[in-house]
Design a protein that fits this description.
The protein has 261 residues and is mostly helical. The chain contains 10 helices and no strands. The chain has one domain.
Length: 261
């Protein structure tokens, strides 16, 4: 039953990552904890493997369609390296229920951001922006670096890829279309996960009996998600994901509070 559950969860997570360019890790950790019985610490380590490999697979599909901006993606990932190391160090010192409560709060923030993006992103995509002056371009690159630091920290501390931050930032600050933002986000997620995993080498615990089938299913489903991203309205995908996050956050938050009581 564990393998069957892992495959089913992997299909869902892969679809989300491939279609939205992120968000899969927000679902992965609660699924590993509450469905498959891993500890929060082990779940965050396993999430990095699952989400990192899945994002790398999905990146290939988006890159073939010309939907990846390599320079922007590399810059975000590079900026996040020191923050990822800090987050990994802090992760080892935090109580499991506190970690889950932080996850629940983060999911609510993500849900709000997703729903806001549902309204804002189409307008940003339609706008034909003139070439920005040098000062404006520099300001946008600074915002991108700041986003990289935040994403790196979240990757190390909570085992999340950060696509829910990257996609809105690329759409709203840089005027990227949704396909470009999704493809670039996947590249960053894969790179960030690799850095965070390297930082946990020798300290993280990995349940490969769960991770391997879940990762295989997620990688395959991410290719389907990539196709969906080009065929379904982004607003519909985003709305559904935002609602799902609110429901999962409520469950995880309740369990964490009860654990702390």
């Amino acid at each position: 039953m564990t393998v069957v559950a892992a495959v089913g969860l992997g299909l869902l997570i892969g679809l989300v990552i491939g279609a939205l360019g992120g968000g899969g890790s927000i679902l992965t950790v609660p699924a590993l904890v509450f469905v498959l019985g891993l500890s929060a610490q082990d779940a965050t380590s396993g999430s990095l493997v699952i989400v990192g490999i899945t994002a790398a697979v999905a990146t290939v599909g988006h890159a073939r369609s010309g939907h990846t901006r390599w320079r922007a993606g590399a810059l975000i990932a590079l900026a996040g390296v020191p923050a990822s190391l800090l987050g990994t160090a802090m992760h080892q010192q935090v109580d499991e229920n506190v970690l889950l409560l932080a996850f629940a709060l983060l999911m609510l923030v993500v849900a709000a951001g997703m729903l806001i993006r549902r309204v804002s992103a189409p307008a940003a995509e339609r706008a034909q922006r003139p070439a920005a002056p040098a000062a404006a371009r520099a300001a946008r690159w600074r915002r991108l670096l700041a986003a990289g630091l935040l994403i790196g920290f979240l990757t190390g501390f909570l085992g999340v890829g950060g696509g829910f931050v990257i996609v809105p930032a690329l759409v709203l600050a840089f005027g990227y279309s949704m396909p470009l933002a999704v493809g670039t986000s996947l590249l960053v997620i894969a790179l960030n996960a690799a850095v965070a995993l390297a930082a946990r080498a020798g300290t993280g615990s990995f349940d490969w009996e769960v991770i391997v089938p879940l990762t295989a299913a997620a990688g395959a489903a991410s290719l389907i998600g990539t196709l969906l991203a080009s065929r379904l309205p982004a607003r519909m995908l985003t709305l559904g994901f935002g609602v799902l996050l609110v429901l999962v956050a409520g469950y995880v938050g309740t369990r964490a509070v009860l654990g702390l009581a």
